[in-house]
Amino acid sequence: MRLVVDLNKCQGYAQCAFLAPDVFAMHGEESLIYDPRAREEQRERLARAVAACPVQAITADGLEGAAGAEASAGMGAGDASDAR
């Protein structure tokens, strides 16, 4: 699974680090570090982290259908790609 975080959008709310600590971490007060190649076992946590980002700075390829489609944050299945 491939992750991309738009670090220009990221505001350091750290919701992703709370929900998927094996993938995301805060470095200092505002800098986010992450593993762009997350393991398949992290799928459900990643879906929640993507959905929880208040500024929609995280995109993840390969999350379709994960955890009740939480990655699309309540959008219709056809709209998930528009969230980027």
From TrEMBL:
It comes from the Bacteria. Keywords: 3Fe-4S, Electron transport, Iron, Iron-sulfur, Metal-binding, Transport. Its cofactor is [3Fe-4S] cluster. InterPro entries: 3Fe4S_ferredoxin, Fe-S_cluster_ET. Ferredoxins are iron-sulfur proteins that transfer electrons in a wide variety of metabolic reactions. This is Ferredoxin. The lineage of its organism: Bacteria, Bacillati, Actinomycetota, Actinomycetes, Kitasatosporales.
